[in-house]
Every structure is written in C-alpha cells, then in structure tokens.
C-alpha cells in the first residue's frame, strides 16, 4: 500500500507551504488529505482504480490529481518543485518537536544545519541559544524533542502497530492448518506503545506457518527462522515474533507470552505455593511432573485458584489479589458506550460534514454524538465564529431528525493562556456539550498551566476537559501540569476528564485515568474523530480505560441520552 508514502508527501507539502506562509486553507487541505489516507485502511491504488478518489473524505480535486500522479510516477512534480525551492533538510528539521517553519529556516540560514545530528550538536554546543528569539530554554526543549524522536523509534504507538499485527493474523489465518492463533505480549495487554508484536499459533504444519510468515511482502528482514519460533522486521521497522506451540500448551503459551513479566512472576509464586510448576508448556505437579493444565488460559488460571484475568489489567497492580477475592472490576467495554462526545467536521478542521459523521455514528450503534469543532481564535484550523455557531445549531437539529441520532452541538473551546475561554458565557450556556482544551503556549510553567486549566473548570458551563495533558505520542511530550490538583479541581467542580481515544494521543494515559477514577472523577471516552473512519478509535480509548480499571459507571458517555443531558445540565 502506498497510502502512507503519499500521506508523508502531503504532510511535507503542508510543512513547506507553512514555511512559505501560504493560506491556512491550502495547508489544511494537504494535511486533511494526509490524515484521510492514513485512516481509510484500503489501498488507495484500488480506490483510484475504481475512479473514486474524490469519495475519500478530505481528498479534493488538487490532491486527487497528485495521488494519481504519485501512483503512476512514484512522486509528484509540485512536491519536487517545492522541495527545490527550499534549502535541503528543512522538513527534517521540522520533524523535531519545538522546531516550526521559521525556526527551521533560521537554523538553516544562520548555522547551515540540515540534519538532526547537526542540530543536536549545535544545541549541545550552545549555538542555538545565540540566535534571535531563541534562548537556553528553547535549546533545552530542542534537545528533549530529539530524545523523544529517538525513543519513539524503539517503541511505536499502538495505533500504528495494531493494524500491522492484524494484517499478519489475517495472513496466517488464511492457512488451512492453522487452528488457533492469538496476539500476545504488550499488544494483547493494549499498552500505549509497543516494543514488538508477539503471536502464538497452533498448527500441524509449523513449517508452512513459518514459511508464510517470513516471506510476507512487508517483511524487510528475517531475524530468526525455526520450527517453533521466527522473528522478522517489517518495512515499518516493527518487529514481530511468531511461536508455534502444541495444542495442549496453547493456553499456557498464551498466558506466558501475554505477560506482563511482573504479573507472571506473581502467578508463578502462587503455583509454587500449591506444589505446582508453571511455564509456557503448561502447569505441572511438582511431585510427579503430571500435567494439570495448559490447553486454555482459563484452565491455567483455574489451576492456581484464580478466575481468568483480562489481559489489559495483567500488570501486577493488585489485580491478582482482587481476582483471588473474586473482586475484579467490572471493566468497561465497547458495547457500554452510548455516544461519542468529541469530533470535528468541515466547520473546523475535520474532513466531513455533520450528516456524514452522524450517519457513521449511527452505524456504530450510538444514540448520540456531540459535534465539537474548534473555537474562534484557532483561525489556523478554521475555528467557528459565534455567528456560525447559531447556523450550526440549526443544521444539527435538521441532521438529528433526518438521520435519527441525537446530534448535540458542542464546542472544543480553547482555553486561552490566561485561563479565560474562547467564547463568552452566554454563548457557552447555549451549547449542549462544552469540551475545553489547551492548544497553545504549551511551554508555560507547571504553576501557570495548572491555574490556567483549573480556571476553565471553575466556569459553570464547562463540562469536559479535552486531552488534559496535551501529549502527542512520539511528537510532543505532555505539558507541565499538576495532575493531582487537576483531579482535585475536576472532582470539586464536577468536570469530567476526557480519555482522548485518538491513538496518537491516548490522553489521559492509563495511569492518570486510574488516578482520576480512584478519586471519583467522572471520565469521558471520546475519539476526537476528524473523519468518519476515526470513530473506530473508540476501541483504543476503551483499552486505556480498561487498563485503568474503569467501570461503565465511571464514564459519562455510557449514559443514555436523557441521563446524560440531566448530568450536563446539572453540572
Ligand atoms: P514489549 O514488546 O516491550 O512492548 O512488551 P512485552 O510485554 O510484549 O514483552 P516481550 O515481547 O519482551 O515478551 C512478551 C511476554 O513474554 C512478556 O510480557 C512476558 C513474557 N516473557 C518474555 N520474556 C520473559 C522472561 O524472561 N520471563 C518471564 N517470566 N516472562 C517472559
Ligand atoms: Ca512484545
Ligand atoms: Ca517479543
Ligand atoms: Zn483538541
């Protein structure tokens, strides 16, 4: 699939247009198209073959032509011309968090920097702080940004890895002698970042499985190939391990390779106390080596006197003790969700109109959605003016009736640097759902940032704080904020905290979501979808919530519409 290569090109074009200070609309058009290409999950060449490029949300005439050109020639003239008109390495420099277009140009002009290594050296040598409008703090942030990029190469966000793992599963499931197959490791536990993919298989023809696995088109390098274990690196840089085991050991192997290591250590200790030995082959009695379990995971847990424990909580954070007392939490799942309370449309930086989003949400089985486009001061993404809000309210009503799903007009209102909100109270009061988020001045001090967000929570019309720490996995560290005080203020003001399910964010993190839940703060799980495809991000948000031991009662958008409205109006 060329989707990702074309998306990368469009993102580069967006960056270059930003340097050239082109109109925000053109820049957004390319970034929208890039995002759509990453989301659609179907080969763009196949779509082009059907002549349906313009049906991809976010793809317009100009971008469709460039996709065609790329598919035919492997590049596109406009892109090459833009690159030719700018110094080399500018978009590489812009890949460092903290380095925007102006900084990148200045680094290049004044210090002749074209690579990340050169930038790192210059920052370490204290050359960057000497440039106009830069300082020691910026220099330090640039070094942090470089470290972040390097770290991310080792562990990738789950949203990038899971679809690739799913592809491997589909390929191997296609073999007729494959009986059982499952993901294991951190991916089955749904951790936010993944070191490598682990897969466990049973098959009478292990050779066939390994031949197929190691020759998949996307394999870049085979690290090891044997009858029971093979290991490859995909073209994306992701490593995957496949283990073929005997059917009688499948449950034991799945339990062992799902981990986490700490969880397994505890389980093993319990086994020892019961005169048992547990490993990836099964559970055995120590005194006569007799096998007592191993075929299924349930049997393995039962052998050590425990109920089956959901993979997301296998982190040795007290789950074994709770399981022992029969008190595992009633973890939330996708079917508990009644609606999605953050999404964007063409009214700001989304790719589709309200009706398209509403129809897609209805297909997800939802009872309601909130349309939460950006607020007026975010001009760069087409923030909605107060006059436009009035029109939008009418449109939402019409679409509600037409599609048969409650379409609530909300906002993702900017929290301005001083904590004031981007709309006056009399406007916020009229909106059904008010999500408030920080989108600027990420560098302020912990004290200032905490006060800024708490001030927003103190506004009586604010329902939800969106992506509360502002992180973007692999691109931007969370801003400095005192989560303890945020949680306290959320509780006091009855403001919900969002688990933003976009796999690039996952914000709140599992640890923060857990902290909020323990202190009785309501949570919301929202996708922040920018196209209908992104509504399916809900599963990632659910995973974060499950890892935080969240139950349906802790989450606002498990409520039926009438109860939700009661809660919002009371808050
Ligand atoms: P990752 O890949 O870094 O995201 O994290 P995991 O948890 O997938 O770790 P990985 O791939 O190294 O190993 C998969 C599971 O196999 C791990 O969660 C527990 C189990 N495992 C691996 N090595 C050991 C070991 O030396 N001892 C024990 N008890 N378990 C192990
Ligand atoms: Ca792994
Ligand atoms: Ca592994
Ligand atoms: Zn936002």
In a nutshell, what does this entry contain?
Helices cover 44% and strands 14% of the residues. With 571 residues, it is of the alpha/beta class.
Give a description of the structure:
- The chain is of the alpha/beta class and 571 residues long.
- It folds into four domains: 153 residues, DNA polymerase, domain 1 (Orthogonal Bundle), CATH 1.10.150.110; 90 residues, 2-Layer Sandwich (Beta Polymerase, domain 2), CATH 3.30.460.10; 75 residues, Beta Polymerase, domain 3; 237 residues, TIM Barrel (Alpha-Beta Barrel), CATH 3.20.20.140.
- Helices cover 44% and strands 14% of the residues.
- A seven-stranded parallel beta sheet has the order 11-12-13-14-15-16-17, covered by helices on one side. A five-stranded mixed beta sheet has the order 2-4-7-6-5, sandwiched between helices.
- β8 and β9 form a beta hairpin.
- The site of zinc ion has 5 residues, from loops.
Strand count: 17
Q: Structural class of the secondary structure composition?
A: alpha/beta
Rounded Rg: 25 Å
| Count of separate DSSP helical elements | 24
CATH class of the largest domain: Alpha Beta
Number of domains: 4
- Fraction in helix: 40-55%
What profile does the largest beta sheet have?
A: 7 strands, parallel
The strand line-up of the biggest sheet is 11-12-13-14-15-16-17
Low-confidence stretches: none
Q: Estimate the strand proportion.
A: 5-15%
Determine the CATH superfamily of the largest domain.
Answer: Metal-dependent hydrolases
